Amino acid sequence: MKRKAVLRVTAKMLIPMIMLFALYVQFHGDFGPGGGFQAGVIFASAFILYALLFGVANARRVAPPGFVRASLSFGVLLYAGVGVAGLFLGGNYLDYSVLADDPVHGQHLGIMLIEFGVGTTVASAMITIFLIFAGQDPEIGGGER
Amino acid sequence: MAVTGLAMVRLRNLFAVVMLSGIFSLSAATLYVVLDAVDVAFTEAAVGAGIATVLGIATLAVVRTEMEKVQKRSVVGPLLIVLVTGVALIYGTLDMPHYGDPAAPIHHHVAPRYIEDSGREVGIPNIVTSVLASYRGYDTLGETAVIFTAAVGVMVLLGRGRRRRRQDQREKRREAAE
Fold it and tell me: Looking at chain A, which residue has its C-alpha nearest residue B43?
């Protein structure tokens, strides 16, 4: 896909909007439909669109495998870590009420953090799986694996 | 949806099957919207119709897109099992309360507490989020762990690890030397 000018230009316009929408879904999940899972998938789809049009090798340069792997684990650790933080602050595991002075604020903070963790893990997992699948094929893989 | 499902079983062109599964997911998402489950519909549209289709196509780029004809074996045994299971499942649904029945057990267990108290206890307008992230936090942690495991599994099975990459480089160097 070296000469698809229309697709490339359209994708370049779409990718920032997809990412912005993912962030909106991520942090607006408290008020409307959405949350970490959906946001992660949408965010990953922006990367996948990029990888489809500009090749996996370029996509790997944008999102280095090491970084994606680190954020893959970071999401789960953040989620579990919020639970452990609750334990240290005198509550039960994953009890967010103790995270702030006001239980409701604590809940808000906890939910925001764990949703962020979920989103990070989901996005990195999708990017990892796609890049590995697409990297099997030398044609999409851009020749370089 | 039934037509899409049947077509998916009958078709031999895997590319068409992947496309049809995307269409299936999209119509499932529409169904969830009709049932007022916007969050589920959102997930179905993003994961089922979006990512799953793209992953399917990526897989097809690696494998062949035409399925080989399988040898026809006797269909009586499998058909019998499917029929019996189907009848048993339908028999099971006869005992279930009607859709939207206010006396159904699901509306009397923890649901009233979520609906009445989550505004005070969690203070988030979207009850789905507060149930998912707060009341059922363990479950969501488990789901995140499942996704993490899936990615790690793909990496282990298909990814090219450090050792393999080093081996490749060594081979390349040897070829260059020769």
Answer: A38
pTM to 2 decimal places: 0.74
Phi, psi (5° rounding) for residue B14?
A: -70, -30
pLDDT, one tens digit per residue, over B105-137 is: 666 777 777 777 766 666 677 777 777 777 777
List all residues of chain B from 100 to 119 with a beta carbon under 8 Å from chain A: none
pLDDT at residue A1 greater than cutoff 70 = no
Inside any domain, residue A143:
no
Q: Could you give the ipTM of this predicted complex?
A: 0.76
Cα distance between residue B114 and residue B109, in whole Å: 10
Question: Is A68 contained in some domain?
Answer: yes
Q: Please tell me if residue B38 touches chain A, with a CB cutoff of 8 Å.
A: yes
Residue B162, pLDDT score = 56
Q: Supply the pLDDT for residue A144.
A: 38
Q: Which residues fall within 8 angstroms of residue A104, CB to CB, at 6 or more apart?
A: B120, B121, B122, B123
Task: Enumerate the domain spans of chain B.
Answer: 1-69
The Cα B35–Cα B10 span in angstroms is 30
Cross-chain residue pair A75–B160, CB shorter than 8 Å = no
The answer to whether A41 contacts B158, with C-beta atoms less than 8 Å apart, is no
What are the Cα distances from residue B160, in Å, to A70, B41, B147, B155?
17, 35, 20, 8
Q: How many CB pairs under 8 A join A and B?
A: 145
Domains: count for chain A:
1
**Residue B167 confidence (pLDDT):** 67
CA distance A18 to chain B (A): 12
The H helix count followed by the E strand count for chain A is 5, 0
